[in-house]
Amino acid sequence: MVIGERLRSLREEKGMSQGDIEKSTGVLRCYISRIENGHTIPSLETLERFAAALDVPLYKLFYSDNGDSPTTHLVDRKSLDEMAEQPGKAGEEARFLLQFKSVMAKLGDLDRDVVLTVAKKLAAR
Fold this sequence. Notes:
434 Repressor (Amino-terminal Domain); 8 helices
């Protein structure tokens, strides 16, 4: 799973353990493990918590500093596309992530900040 690999990579870059993330986000360590191992796809609210704990903007969970998608370096893109074809919640969440990634890639920095600010306000409700 693309997002799980990216979260693990960012967490390790910051020198943080899953326990550190658990303390910062309130997300249980077992759930963090499930996300990182690709067994589940986190909600936008959970991704926002991860971004805050890792002290990175939310879009950094989807793109590296050189602008590449994490799919370029972490896993074959087909895995997310294949998941999107599955029925049920997993497929629905994978389709959402593909749409979100596509839209975020087209936005400039200012527009991206506006979208993320709105998402934060909605998540806070």
